[in-house]
């Protein structure tokens, strides 16, 4: 059930949404930009702002000053857990408040290390934020909980208000705007985490004309994370999303919008070869999943004609 605040928010976004021009409003003289080009840019800007819940990205009236939150690879910083959103039966989205309303200033694909204690044993595990790299006041982590996992035991004890310790950042993908003509992003399960801020950064940058094909591998449709985000991103002119569902039995179980962009079965050479050939331009591939998944996909991409320097494994 939506409360009044939800209705007010929808009213605000409805008022801010740009109005599509009528055909009669185009003069037909080949203007650059045409009124329809201007509308498309405004609509993409509105889509990005709505996806991030920040009207100031349209109005330019942001009241929040962004400060940097100091991190260290050698020592831990405590962030307060703000909320837990259940995404699937074993995976949640954890949102943390950042001190001073600042940002982490992470590079794309960089991860932090979480510290926990279970039965007196200290544990450390790496997780990649899925929040935009320029987010202010918060960061979010997509975390899968394993039945017998020690760190999962610790994470299950979390409740909003708890302070959780992190250190970093580490790793990352050295991306710059328009560095590649075409990206082929292939992720399995929570391996989608570093792809999310990368994709967000590309679609946030109106000058970045990189084509992106994102291939998401899950067991079935119910296991797909962040469906709203992926759906919103697929509306951008340069983004294509594709799903590989290894245990889904029939396309009839899928929403109509997924049926023409979903492969039922496992990721094999024939499919990888088709994906590479369907790219607008020769792709640079980015892979993230388990070590076994990364190695298998890398070998399939090499068979499909990509050289080693055209592949990056998280």
Intertermini distance: 40 Å
**Helix and strand succession?**
HHHEEEEEHEEHEHEHEHEHE
- Largest sheet strand order: 4-3-6-1-2-5
Structural class: alpha/beta
- Rough outline: globular
Describe the biggest sheet?
6 strands, antiparallel
Report the count of strand segments.
12
Model regions low in confidence, pLDDT < 50 over at least 5 residues:
none
Percent of residues in β-strands:
25-35%
Please count the helical segments.
Answer: 9
Rg computed from alpha carbons, rounded to a whole number of angstroms: 21 Å
Task: Describe what this molecule looks like in 3D.
The protein is of the alpha/beta class. The protein contains nine helices and twelve strands. A six-stranded antiparallel beta sheet has the order 4-3-6-1-2-5. A hairpin with a 2-residue loop joins strand 3 and strand 4. Helix 8 crosses helix 9. The chain is globular, with a radius of gyration of 21 Å. The mean pLDDT is 88.
